[in-house]
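Researcher: Go.
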Amino acid sequence: MKHFLELTFLMVRREMIVRYRGTILGYAWSVLNPLMFALVYIVAFKYIIRIPVENYGVFLLTGLFPWLWMSGAMNGGTKGFETYQAVLKAGAVRPIIVPFFVVIIEFVHFLFSLPVVLAIVFFSAAAIPITGYIYFPVVFLLTAFFLFTTVCIVSCLSLVFRDLGHLFQLFVQMLFFLSPIIYPVDLVPDSFKTIYHLNPFVDLIMLWRQVLYLGDAEWQLAIYPFIVSCGLCIGAYVCFKHIGRRAVQWI
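Model: Structure:
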């Protein structure tokens, strides 16, 4: 366990150094970039399209930043084994650890940007009770479980189907607009809601928004993502049994 924790720390540290080497603002770019992105959406959807949501800026940010963790982990999974091939070939870790690294590194980026989001929430009219954040660990574990199983499958399949990474990135982009990040679920037509809620990211984004924005959580929203994660866990086991264990040979 001590070796595993030390290696995780080194992998996170290495990723931070490589990603922001040579930049002046360093890690601030990971916050400034989505904030500028959110500003464009606020102007477009609040003042031009005029989505009827109170405190739309806070509404958007509390959905956007968790999504950046999810999308970053899923996209990173398409090149997970390739990114950590040196560590794998050295025999320092087992292949199953690679998806964990991918999810945790993207979570660290989300965690470091979280104070900015919370500051915006607290200084807005949408300030929430601090007790609401007791739900954070549970929602984190649910999201991490879902992402870990997804990244396991994507990482393994990407070794076999090299074009999967490009197709999956397009799929993740579509999920952005098919999840309640820039609009509330109430605006989805009733005739489309049954299909719409088949997307597990709908419930995950709603849970994160409730924790960060409303200070409470409707736990029935966690049921469907958890069931999907259990199903993906079976798929991840099969993928690693037939592909992941021989990842070094596939790279």
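Model: The chain has a mean pLDDT of 82.
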